[in-house]
């Protein structure tokens, strides 16, 4: 088995955290708008900010899922661009990295 069990556990934990945060954001977005007009404007700009956060959370969750998929399929730790082995230290620092430092630069 690969030596990525610890990283897989961290990715799983991160995914759970992202899912929990996304749920919180969605709960906020579902709240009805305030009847008071100035408040409504604030709610709307809040919603825009929340939608942005939601997109960021989704993008990171997708990266984490892709990394877990690479661990499952045995391609994790191999640069998606040049095929070189990605140093373990880089994966520790950035578990979702799909490329070696040279290709990511
Ligand atoms: Zn590379």
What's a concise summary of this model?
This protein is mainly α. The chain contains 4 helices and no strands.
Helix content: 55-70%
- Poorly predicted runs are none
Ligands (ions, cofactors included)? zinc ion
Biggest sheet record? none
SSE class: mainly alpha
Radius of gyration: 19 Å
Give the overall average pLDDT. 91
How many separate helices? 4
Give the helices and strands as they follow along the chain.
HHHH
Distance between the termini: 30 Å
Number of strands: 0
**% residues in beta strands:** under 5%
Can you tell me the overall shape? elongated
Overview of this structure, please?
With 105 residues, this protein is mostly helical. It has a domain at 5-76. The protein is 70% helix and 0% strand. Helix 1 packs antiparallel against helix 2. It binds zinc ion.
What key attributes describe this structure?
105 residues, mainly alpha, 4 helices, 0% strand, binds zinc ion
Fold topology:
Layout (H helix, E strand, L loop, with lengths): L4 H26 L6 H37 L14 H6 L7 H4 L1
This protein binds zinc ion (ZN).
